[in-house]
Write a structure and sequence with these properties.
Layout (H helix, E strand, L loop, with lengths): L19 E2 L1 H13 L2 E8 L6 E6 L3 E6 L2 E6 L4 E6 L4 E6 L20 H4 L4 E7 L2 E7 L7 E5 L6 E8 L2 E12 L17 E2 L7 H5 L5
Parallel strand pairs: 7-13
Antiparallel strand pairs: 1-8, 2-3, 2-12, 3-4, 4-5, 5-6, 6-7, 8-9, 9-10, 10-11, 11-12
Length: about 210
Amino acid sequence: MVGWLAVGLLALSSPGDGAQDVRGLLARGQANLRQARTVVGLFGPKGAKTLQPFELIKPASFYARWRGYEVYHNGERGMQYVYDPKRNVYMAYESRTPRVDLVLFGYQGFFGPDPAMQALHPAGRRVRFDGRECLQARVRGLNSATDVFLDPGSGLVAGWSLRTGGRTVVMVYRDVALGAPVPQAHRAWTPPRGARRTELPFPGPEQAEVGKGR
């Protein structure tokens, strides 16, 4: 399974023309992720009536609902699962490190280095995004134009946009909280009794783009 984005290379230059340096804010956000024991919140396409929950759990577990699937990483087993509760089937693969970029682009830094955030262009600009002021910056070195929106307070990713296939995909993160409690069952999920292992389609076409080109 893949989960990345895309963008053309931009020149490394000092911020100008109203641009602001994003490096300090980005460093703050990555430090917040590294120091947190849990991160919980909601995410989904901009304009969606309902957003879906996600949970990041130290040392190596996460949970998210996405497009009717439930995505888990069991840190004790070193396994990542995509579960279809309607059909009671699941896909599983070995992964010592959780791959949260599958559905949560911009939050891999909770578990370790985040190549996408390390490739963020140092010059950004203030914009209005999802009803709040954010700092917008582009990810360098990918295939399609991808922008990340950083919350000016926490430095965490508030959302992202990806231009692909003649359309723009925009995802938002809301109500993100550090250190919130999470269900014990989400720390060490295993397939329920009677569930059948199978090969499932990936959660969404944009996630197949969000990982190519690096």
